[in-house]
From TrEMBL, chain A:
Membrane topology, as annotated: Multi-pass membrane protein
Protein name: ABC transporter permease
Alphabetic keyword roster: Cell membrane, Membrane, Transmembrane, Transmembrane helix, Transport
Claim: Hydrolase is one of the keywords in the record: no
Pfam families, per database record: FecCD
The species this protein was found in: Halopseudomonas bauzanensis
Family: Belongs to the binding-protein-dependent transport system permease family. FecCD subfamily.
Any one GO BP annotation for this protein: siderophore-iron import into cell
InterPro entries, per the entry: ABC_BtuC-like, ABC_transptr_permease_BtuC
Taxonomy of the source species: Bacteria, Pseudomonadati, Pseudomonadota, Gammaproteobacteria, Pseudomonadales
Automatic annotation (TrEMBL), chain B:
Stretches assigned to the ABC transporter domain: 2-236
Record-given protein name: Iron complex transport system ATP-binding protein
Organism this protein belongs to: Halopseudomonas bauzanensis
GO molecular function: ATP binding; ATP hydrolysis activity
InterPro entries on file: AAA+_ATPase, ABC_transporter-like_ATP-bd, P-loop_NTPase, Siderophore_ABC-ATPase
Major localisation: membrane
GO terms classed as biological process: iron ion transport
Keyword Iron: yes
SMART domains from the UniProt entry: AAA
Keyword Transferase tagged: no
Coiled-coil regions listed: none
SUPFAM superfamilies: P-loop containing nucleoside triphosphate hydrolases
Subcellular localization, as worded in the UniProt entry: Cell membrane
Length: 336, 252
């Protein structure tokens, strides 16, 4: 007989309910995402149409890849944020607010300068992921050397690190006349996603599943080195796995769509309010909420100035800030 | 048996633990006492591989703690340190269940669940099982952590200042529970204690440390004596025999 570590009376029922609610939300938003765009299309027409006609081409070449990309990237970014929060032992951090995303954008820039003829997709993915890993290690390394680690200092240190990397990229881009490209990478969106241009995100999907398998261990990491060591969890090895996981998720998203902010901050913090911090219970909810958030931001971006588009990253910055401030204010008693 | 050989810890120029070689026999209740800065906690955390040693080695039942795989050692020895601050929202039950991690790696069996429930009952946490640990009082949280360590069900149970933050009633409860774990379950309990009266009334064996070294070792009858304690703490301490318990007064 086997039970999940999280099975406690009362709690799972609510967790399962939320799981279905969020799943339904992702499905509804996904269907909307398939239906909305510059060309008119109705899903029902596709089913009856001949597979070679224009409408089903739009669906299978553009709309479906874009929708899948949004779901995979949103889910992965939420999970990456949750893991980073466990590693930093602070819930107010995300890959977009502590340096890893900025470092990944710097990686794109360096690639464009050093290898202007371009690299194959896998090469770009590995280089950009390595830069993201560098960003994570820089942040965690600075944290480790800090004598004072109050709950509010940690995210501030992250913002400083991200700012430094961002500014360095800006200088370099300016010097090589690549400011325009850098700006494009820094405001990620999914309007250019077509079949053949998003498949790297399946790597992120695989990493999301890996994070679910390791969820218990990442929760243990969040309890600190001594706690982990006492129950026989190899802290160093798991931290390394966490860095690799988060870096590759960031790498695949930035290579595919650019910098997508705030999802890794907002989704885990909202889920925490309903399901607590036991990642085994929370990670599936975080992944679904991340997917829903990114789908919603992208949809809104497509509808606001239809038939043109607002990059989803811009909208996420706004939505993310509002939700995050609300969460922060709601929990202010705890952080004071 | 826990054996340390020439164990030292140095932070910069400060020698916190100085060439300690001692053995703690299997079974029974051992207390480590001594003034602040004597190196008690550091020694305990080196024995339990949480702090690296500057020199020396530690063996637990013949296993070198720095070379034995972490999860093997985690089924033999558990350690609870003093500061257990966390901002994570975990329920008491989730926390206690992590004690089963070395045994089942997160997939709880019926046997694991029995241990979890038993540990929570043992520490009277039944009413709080689904409460997040960040909403508990200091004493309740301390009991939850001790329940987790009990749930780990190891031969050796090491605790650093387990009576911190808890009131007299729960302190007595906690000591009785640890005493029972030694008597009924045959556990080897090793506790760093500041309260020498608790050490006197519950221990089989006392290690008294001063300036990074064990200054005295022996039974409570041998250690809880005026001259020994005065020398150890450099203050006036009187030992009285009350109802068969050796009790120290030193309050004025």
């Amino acid at each position: 007989m086997s039970h999940s570590l999280s099975s406690s009376p009362g709690a799972p029922d609510r967790g399962v309910l939320w799981l279905f609610l969020l799943l339904a939300l992702v499905v509804v938003l996904g269907l909307c995402s398939l239906n909305v765009g510059a060309s008119r299309m109705n899903l029902l027409n596709v089913l009856t149409a001949d597979p070679d006609d224009r409408i089903s081409k739009i669906l299978f070449v553009s709309r479906l890849p874009r929708t899948i990309a949004l779901i995979l990237a949103g889910a992965a970014l939420a999970v990456a944020g949750a893991i980073l929060q466990m590693m930093a032992r602070n819930r107010l951090v995300d890959t977009s607010t502590t340096g890893p995303m900025a470092a990944a954008a710097l990686g794109m820039l360096v690639l464009a300068i050093v290898l202007p003829q371009g690299l194959p997709l896998w090469g770009r993915f590995l280089v950009v992921s390595a830069f993201a890993a560098g960003g994570i290690l820089l942040f965690l390394g600075v944290l480790q050397r800090m004598p004072l680690r109050s709950a509010l200092i940690v995210p501030l240190v992250g913002l400083v690190m991200a700012g430094v990397v961002h500014a360095a990229s800006g200088l370099i881009a300016h010097h090589f006349d690549l400011s325009q490209s850098l700006r494009a990478w820094n405001s990620g969106d999914f309007s250019a996603i077509l079949r053949g241009r998003y498949e790297l995100l399946w790597v992120a999907a695989g990493l999301t599943v890996a994070a679910m398998v390791l969820a218990d261990r990442f929760t243990v990491i969040g309890m600190g080195r001594d706690f982990a060591t006492n129950i026989g969890v190899n802290y160093g090895l798991l931290m390394a796995a966490g860095v690799a996981l988060v870096a590759m998720i960031v790498g695949s998203v930035v290579v595919t769509a650019g910098v997508i902010p705030f999802i890794g901050l907002v989704a885990p913090n909202l889920v925490r309010l309903i399901a607590g911090d036991n990642l085994r219970r929370a990670v599936p909810l975080m992944a679904l909420l991340g997917a829903a958030l990114l789908l919603a931001a992208d949809l809104l971006g497509r509808l606001l100035i239809h038939p043109y588009e607002v990059p989803s990253s811009n909208l996420l910055s706004i939505i993310g800030c509002v939700i995050f401030l609300a969460v922060l204010l709601q929990g202010r008693a705890k952080w004071s | 048996m826990i054996e340390t050989r020439g164990v030292s810890k140095r932070y910069g120029d400060v020698l916190v633990v100085d060439d300690v070689s001692l053995s703690i026999p299997r079974g029974g209740f051992t207390s480590i006492i001594g003034p602040n800065g004597a190196g008690k906690s550091t020694l305990l955390s080196m024995i339990s591989r949480l702090t690296p040693m500057s020199a020396g080695s530690v063996q637990v039942d013949g296993m070198d703690v720095t070379r034995t795989p972490g999860n093997v050692l985690a089924r033999r020895l558990s350690i609870l340190r003093q500061d257990n601050q966390t901002s994570l929202r975990l329920t008491v039950r989730d926390l206690v269940a992590f004690g089963r991690f070395p045994h089942s790696g997160g997939r709880l069996t019926a046997e694991d669940l029995r241990h979890v429930d038993e540990a929570m009952d043992y520490l009277r946490l039944g009413d709080y099982r689904d409460r997040p640990i960040d909403e508990l009082s200091g004493g309740q949280r301390q009991r939850a952590y001790v329940a987790m360590v009990m749930c780990q069900d190891t031969e050796y149970v090491l605790l650093d200042e387990p009576l911190n933050n808890i009131d007299m009633r729960f302190a007595v409860d906690m000591m009785q529970l640890l005493r029972r774990a030694a008597d009924e379950k045959g556990k080897t309990v090793v506790v760093v204690l500041h309260d020498i009266n608790f050490a006197s009334c519950y221990s089989d064996h006392i290690i008294a440390m001063r300036q990074g070294r064990p200054a005295y070792q022996g039974s409570p009858q041998e250690i809880i004596r005026d001259e020994v304690l005065r020398d150890l703490y450099e203050m006036d301490i009187q030992v009285h025999e009350v109802n068969g318990q050796r009790v120290c007064t030193y309050y004025r």
